[in-house]
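Q: Can someone sanity-check these two? First one:
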Amino acid sequence: MTAELGHFSLILAFAVAIVQMIVPMVGATKGWQNWMDMAAPAAMAQFLLTSLAFGALVYGFATSDFSIRLVAENSHSAKPMLYKLTGTWGNHEGSMLLWVFILTLFGAMVALFGRNLPDRLKARVLSVQSAVAVAFFAFLLFTSNPFLRLVNPPMDGQGLNPLLQDPGLAFHPPFLYLGYVGLSVSFSFAVAALIEGRVDAAWARWVRPWTLAAWMFLTIGIALGSWWAYYELGWGGWWFWDPVENASFMPWLIAAALLHSAIVVEKRESLKTWTILLAIIAFSFSLIGTFIVRSGVITSVHAFANDPERGVFILAILAITIGGSLSLFAMRAGNLGAKGVFSLVSRESALVLNNILLVVAALVVFVGTVWPLVSEMTFGRKLSVGEPFFDTAFTPFMVALAMVLPLGAVLPWKRASLGRAMRPLWGVLAVSVALGSLVMVLQTGTRMMAPVGLALASWLVLGSLADLAGRVRLRKLPFSESMHRLRHLPRADVGKSVAHIGLGLTIFGISAITAWQSEDIRIARPGDSFQIAGAVSSYDIHFDAVNEVEGPNYSATRGDFTVTSNGKMVATLHPEKRVYTVSRMPTTEAAIDIGPTRDVYLVIGDAQDGGGYAVRSYVKPFAVWIWFGAIVMALGGLLSLSDRRYRVAAGARRRQHQTQPAE
């Protein structure tokens, strides 16, 4: 009965979405207030019905209801409860239901928190948001129904992919989807603005919090996925330029560009058409990511294997959504005149350069991701675009971006003097170059990754701190007065600096682990000892023993290793090679001793014919800084999102907007 209730709720939500798509849009066009007022309650009803459907599916997984086909194919009674629950979205149909659930959640939040929006704009935004929901409700109900029953239910299920039975993968998809789907609100605001033919500072102030929230969730989701790949796959890497990784990275880059572009619209009412286009492209990349993951056109460790018919349906959604919005943009963008003018040296120009670098970087990732598919379809040749291409083509744009950010943050609006703007940054530049030079002298070999990375990271971190120090007039006022000024700075400004600091920390972590990591691969037997040299100190690793252990739904070969350095105990590590009972699929569980300056990383492989086991060991300098930097970036987004201006300032313009006739 629960499955039927969930299915019926989906059908009702689909019907409500169709009404919400049509009625408020007509009301906004005709000026019929009652029709426009229908948008908010319809959005709330749509969310409640979808929540009921999602809850029904979660209940089916929690109770191991194997009469539901999806549960039988993706769960097992022996699984821990956490993975029973997260198995809800560990498959195509369940993940699409999660997608629609979050989509309706954002629609309900616009209805709830958008009370200060002009009535016509709010009606159009919710109507466009519902149009996107209609497409995905149709996809769910007609091609991917998660509530199908089995005539003869099995005694037990087939289990979940063992790679997905991990806390990182339990939380990674929801955060990622909150980012993906959150960009739909920016898209809806952009399309609504094109229909109205009006974009101004208030519009930018309304759209920025939604974009910021989506970017923040994407940051957390990508970081969780990277951390999972680092410790779960056993490959020792944190990013592999996998198509599915790229599918989340591209909208993150465009969303970052959109955030910076919206600042110019808010402050100077310039770059209006460009900002609208970025909002469309950001959500378009989210949809493209959905197609890449679910169409079956690519092979990935975390892609959903599905039949091409579903891919064709998603492709149709892409064509209608992206093609329709870009066509509307082509017709109406000329009406969005820009008011502000600015010189070549100004904060506006720096933000334009920031946007160009981010968008071109996203384009590089897009080309590298889809080119193997294009090559096979067009030329009949199978190509592989891997890490060397992305590192060579992508890295220069990120280096340039890191160089621009601190200076752009201190440049005045409209017109600036480069010499005056650099005054507080000359010392920062000198320290950054000195640190990079010091590392280059001290390190062995000619690897430039670490010196350049450290110099850029220092430039970003110290430049952001110098910007904050200048704002609070540190050392020019008493310290207590400076701290008082810091507490009363707009949180958006503080959040911007914190996010830039987080980016600097991540750049340093990436540079250090890439340049200085050590690796040792050998066949070892219990009782053997070997040494691996780190960037700072060496580590002695003693292979103590091998044991067979039983987990809740797997058996494992576990190695016991003792790690010492200079005769002092560092850690006892227990890497495992697991085989899951139901699927008989082996997985590798790395053992990691995490430290602020290095990770000691051990992996045990299969038993060898001649005796012993394959053992891989790594020393990874400053690896944790990669994810710590991502946390700091997300914290910066959260600080900016809490800025009081985004909660109340838009309301001050409501009357002004409502007295202007719709165009």
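And here is the second, same format, sequence then tokens:
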Amino acid sequence: MKTSRWVPALFLGPAILVMAAACLYPVVSAFQLAGYDWSLGTPWSSARWVGWDNMVSAFSNPRVWSSLVTTLLFAAVCVSAEMVLGIALALALEKPVRGMAVFRTLFILPMMIAPIAVGLTWRYIFDAQFGLINALLKLAGFSAQTWLADPQLAFIAIVIADVWQWTPFVFIMMIAALAGLDHSVMEAARIDGANWWQQTFWVKLPMVIHVIAITLMMRLIDAFRVLEVIYVLTFGGPGDSTEILALHIYKTAFVGQQLGVAAAISLLLLVVVVLLSWGALRLSNPLKGEDR
């Protein structure tokens, strides 16, 4: 019996409407708000149309571009470390060993903690007087550091917090991908004399390259949107050394009360995230090119 054409639309329609309401409406609102001068606490009827002035003000502000550079650097360092550590942990814990369930649970826990709690925890850990990091440095014979007061050390601190929280995501993705590999291929590689390194880099990882690609792009997209941990940990300081683009948008909107300018800057972030999403779809599609 042939299914009517309207049946798929009937099932997909509600989901499409929900996605449109949840995703498209905020985007359209951002485009609208970017053309107005409006502050919170005032009626929308008092909003003043300024056209492209908000765009010009946003893109001529050096702090916007410096925060974008900080975001790019933050994303590159964090995601690179998370990918290396996550893949390494997945390879190390791929085979069943005693206590594997306990290890996997411990690795997943950081990802399940609320970002605000993560920020508060690491803020106490990096405290200059009572923090755990400085206590360990003193035990090792090194001098205590003002982690959150030094621009370079503060950047390292937010990187450590992000890597600690999101390496488990890479680990989960990779352990699931490795578990689904065809064991006959691995057995053939062993019979052909391939050692562990050759099996890993010439057989295993190429077979899960699409999972690696989508995991990489998902982490890059999330790195551009991170806010809560850095908000609690450094609030973008000292100075603007740890002020990523999402945090700058927050400050512009809710501290500076320039919602139109903040909406204009958010469109820049939207463009970056869309490009990364497009890259994820291009790299992670295992069927591309097969229909040619």
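A (reply): Looked at the second one. The first strand starts at residue 36 and ends at 37. The radius of gyration is 24 Å.
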